[in-house]
Amino acid sequence: MLTPPSSPLPASKQSFPLRASRSPSPLAGPSFIPEKQVISAHATSEEVKRNIGRRMRWAVLVVPLVLILIALSTRYITHLPVMDILSDPTMSWSQMEDNLSDWHLHKRHPAEADAQPTGLIANPGSSTTTDKPQSLPTVPSTPPDVPRPFPQAFDSDIGQNFSSGSCQNFFVNMTNTSPFRSCRPFSLLADTSAEFINAQTNLTLMNTLIWGTCNTSTPADECKVNMDWFAAQMKVECRQELSQRNDRVLSALTDIQAYDMMRKAACLVDPSTNSYCYMSAVINTNPSDLYFYSLPSGIFLPQTTKPTCSACTKSMMALYALSLSEQYPDMGAEVVDETKPLAGLQKTYGASTVLTQNQCGAAYAPTIAASSTGAASQVLPRSFVFVVSAILLYSSKIFGAFSLW
After folding, report:
1. Using CA atoms, how far apart are residues 365 and 306, in angstroms rounded to an integer?
2. Is the pLDDT of residue 213 over 70?
3. pLDDT tens digits for range 220-260
4. Cα–Cα nearest to 231, from 183, 195, 197, 294
5. Exposed e or buried b for every residue in 358-390, given b needs 16+ CB within 10 A?
6. C-alpha–C-alpha distance, residues 152 and 159, integer Å
7. What is the mean pLDDT of residues 209-221?
């Protein structure tokens, strides 16, 4: 019997020769495999330092060039050469100094009509009816004929800039009530009464109005109580506007809460002339003395302020210091609530004291622990802000490398 041949084995799945059986590739030799370099920590640190050093050297070279280009481009953009042809002749230093110092507050003086200046700062001692210079009137020795009706706050328009009907109704009712109108609040009149402001062009009338604010039919103590009540009610009826920092409402509250102090300020008399200090400030060609009446509103004295250093300056600063010390025994407390009484003066008094003492001497302004670190107001040119921003941005990118090191 024949034995059948054994079955053939199944084909192997590996139909190709093993990699080892291949001929060696010329690229597979050990000489063609790059060895991994081992870099020490010391070498890495040195390389980072060199990179930072190179960046710093480039920064020293590039930053000045960038600033020069910015300055030149800003000058060219904001002042095209063709504008030199159309511009006025170059002013002298004295003319520039006069122009810089000849400015007026927004609310304290009459609005300018076309090309004819009506404010006393622009045309001191002038009148709306005559071009003859006016002399400084003295305090009336007998009661003058006070205008009836007397100028009132918000006499032109209360406005519609209110968020709530309750606040608008409160302003309308307040300005039409006898307890308010009879007290003739100087602080509000000087800020919001067009008739009172325009009276500055007639010194006789202005002198009569000042007398009227100092001699009201309602006693001064009763007026203070009335104004305190109006201030408390305003905080309730206008709480939404106050929380939104509505300028008109906040300014009115500030003026009402400063009623008693500003009444005394308006009635100060210059002993050398027997005239109201406010009248002396109005007629003076130097507007600096008028600026002091804006301190309770939170407006800083301009750096160009040059007070006359008179008895009026000393009396007004003494009045402010006394009022602040009574209202805020701890003047070191920071002003965080602008609705508090005399908050505006608390903010501005410290800087005004420094300026007044530098100009007039330490005796002209009592020094108290002012809560504000602000100085006299100033506005930085837009080009300066842009250059500073560019420097800070570029520096942050350079020094950002140190945080990675």
Report:
1. 14
2. yes
3. 999 999 999 999 999 999 999 999 999 999 999 999 999 99
4. 183
5. ebbeeebbbebebbbeeebeeeeeeeeeebeee
6. 15
7. 97
Prediction pTM value: 0.60
pLDDT at residue 60 tops 90: no
Q: Per-residue pLDDT tens for 335-374?
A: 557 889 999 999 999 999 999 999 999 999 998 854 443 3
Contact, 249 vs 167, CB < 8 A?
yes
Greatest Cα pair distance, the chain, in angstroms, is 164
